[in-house]
Amino acid sequence: VVKSQWLPHTEALHLLPLSPYLRLLHFTSTSSDGVQINTYHTPSVCSRKVEVSDYVRYHYNGTLLDGTLFDSSHTRMRTYDTYVGIGWLIAGMDQGLLGMCVGERRIITMPPSLGYGENGDGSDIPGQASLVFDVVLLDLHNPRDGITVTNQVVPESCTRKTVSGDYVRYHYNGSLLDGTFFDSSYSRNRTYDTYVGRGYVIAGMDEGLIGVCIGERRTITIPPHLGYGEEGTGTKIPGSAVLVFDVHIIDFHNPTDNTEITVTFKPDECDRQTKKGDFVKYHYNASLMDGTSIDSTYNYGKTYNIVLGANQVVPGMEDGLMDMCVGERRHLVIPPHLGYGERGVTGEVPGSAVLVFDIELVEMEEGLPEGYMFIWNDEVSPDLFSEMDKNSDKEVEPSEFTDYIMRQVTEGKGRLAPGFDPYRIIDNMFSNQDRNGDGKITEAEFKLKADEAAAHDEL
Ligand SMILES: [Ca+2]
Ligand SMILES: [Ca+2]
């Protein structure tokens, strides 16, 4: 019965030679009582084909054999989303979609027995109608799927891989399975930054970003139940969509990280190692983990000079310059909480960036003990006040005070903290002694201060 109703329609094809899909039907091997499948576009890549119990999203035009359109997902502007092969569809579609690739276009022709049978469906599909569906498959997954990681490019050197709780900065291009682009961090010209494994991102991404190396590239394919589910999100991610993220890991760190110090060159001779308070002169090359250069003292032809422990550089650099010999070279990896933090430096260091410094200690000047800005190398003169009071008017003026201290320094009897403006130090010393702030130090003021200092030393 089915066969006899099928055949007359085949004749009808010859009457409509210009219709493109009908022309294709000429080349179809006819199995007159089954589903006919004509693939007229095959995608270049097909990693997977529709199997029984898969969930698919597709567009279709449904026509009768004479070309009458009875239904189209295109006109509704939304895909048809369904399980395949488990009776959710008319039998002809349940069969006809099997083996299909994402991006494939095929014409599925079915006899009425595999469509809507004797009674048809509503007013559009008459009884005993053979049906022709022109289908393009957009999406495919199985509810049992996990994420898949493909196209991995792992850098040669990878000493560490992300674990849950790490903070990752990465770039991504996001697309649907059919290639439709939906989002890119590159378009915003900044990385996406997040903790991984902590539920801040969709479950599939949380999982796909575990075990990555800095510099690694990978494609993470995420089924909807690990993505945006049946609802989708925004205007670009439809419900039940599989998501494909091409990611590039820029850097990552853990909030518990310390500065990583690798000695790359150690001089044979090293009399003394740097300590807090030392004035150090060093060269550096600064870059990001992806190799982007930030700055280099070599460009300026002069060293960077700081006092260690005086908060003149980021904490990670303070760490990296400690216990170092002159001539020594080090490779430092500084996590953002010991660098420029979440804010970074506008135009130079992105927020939350891990920094890489290659440093070389060129010179050091020993600092003073903590809390001191001036110390005596020799015994203090018992008659300090009158030595300072050059014009013997029983008052020490600023110029007398400054001249005296500078002379002690020049003669090697005393020492000022290195790395600071000596005149500012001396000004502070003077103010300290000038108790009533009248710009002169009297003998009484001087003695009071000396007694306090002595008492302090005893403690
Ligand atoms: Ca005087
Ligand atoms: Ca005074």
TrEMBL record:
It catalyses: [protein]-peptidylproline (omega=180) = [protein]-peptidylproline (omega=0). Its EC number is 5.2.1.8. It is found in: Endoplasmic reticulum. Residues 53-141, 165-253, 277-365 form the PPIase FKBP-type domain. SUPFAM superfamilies: EF-hand, FKBP-like. One of its GO terms (molecular function) is peptidyl-prolyl cis-trans isomerase activity. GO terms for cellular component: endoplasmic reticulum. Keywords: Calcium, Endoplasmic reticulum, Glycoprotein, Isomerase, Metal-binding, Repeat, Rotamase, Signal. Residues 376-411, 421-456 form the EF-hand domain. It comes from the Eukaryota. Gene3D superfamilies: 3.10.50.40, EF-hand. SMART domains: EFh (SM00054). It holds the Pfam family FKBP_C. It is an enzyme of class 5 (isomerase). PPIases accelerate the folding of proteins during protein synthesis. This is peptidylprolyl isomerase. It comes from Oreochromis niloticus. The lineage of its organism: Eukaryota, Metazoa, Chordata, Craniata, Vertebrata.
